[in-house]
Write a structure and sequence with these properties.
The chain is an alpha+beta fold. It folds into 2 domains: about 1-110, no CATH class; about 115-180, no CATH class. About 45% of the residues lie in helices and about 15% in strands. Helix 1 (about 30-35) runs antiparallel to helix 2 (about 45-50) and helix 1 (about 30-35) packs parallel to helix 3. The two termini are about 55 Å apart.
Length: about 180
């Protein structure tokens, strides 16, 4: 944008002047702006509208360029808003996750595994026991996944550990999760 941009006046010449929209458009060509703004318009309708613009080509070109700049500005603003909302969602979810972890820890610490409220129930629930691999090199060959050579069968290891079988290189891990139900 340079000093060559003019303010839209009663002059019928298109000027691409800054307005409420980024650029103003020659009045007889406002139909193009409406079709370009309509989310339901098809590419064919847009092409037909551009083909149907009256006036000399220079006026048509200026009007189309103004609409392009307006749309690009709107797209840039929408992309920035989406990025800002995604960042906010990430921050808010991290805060909720931290609060969830704190509440779970304190419920377990106080041996409260269920708290009923008028609108919901908060529960500290046991997760299924998981196998935690400490040193994969120590795990016996019988715990290898037969369908995927070189991979451990974690389900078989977890089952063996739950059945109190000693599995070198693996431990059983018990965890909890916080559930809030309506």
């Amino acid at each position: 944008m340079t000093g060559s941009l003019k303010v839209v006046s009663t002059n019928p010449t298109p000027t691409c002047a800054p307005m409420a929209r980024l650029y103003g458009i020659y009045h007889p060509h406002r139909a193009l702006e409406k079709v370009a703004d309509d989310p339901d318009s098809t590419p064919e309708a847009l092409m037909e509208t551009m083909e149907g613009l009256g006036g000399d080509f220079e006026q048509v070109a200026k009007s189309i360029a103004c609409v392009i700049k307006n749309i690009e500005g709107e797209a840039k603003d929408a992309a920035k808003a989406a990025k800002d909302m995604a960042a906010r969602a990430k921050r808010v979810q991290a805060r909720a996750d931290a609060m969830r972890a704190y509440l779970l820890e304190k419920m377990i610490e106080h041996h409260l595994y269920r708290i009923a409220c008028p609108n919901f129930v908060v529960s500290a629930v046991d997760n299924p026991a998981e196998a935690e691999i400490i040193d994969a090199k120590l795990i016996p060959a019988k715990f290898m996944d037969e369908s995927r050579p070189g991979y451990l069968d974690l389900t078989r290891i977890a089952t063996a550990l739950r059945d109190c079988e000693h599995v070198p290189g693996a431990l059983i891990r018990y965890t909890h999760r916080l559930v809030i139900r309506q």
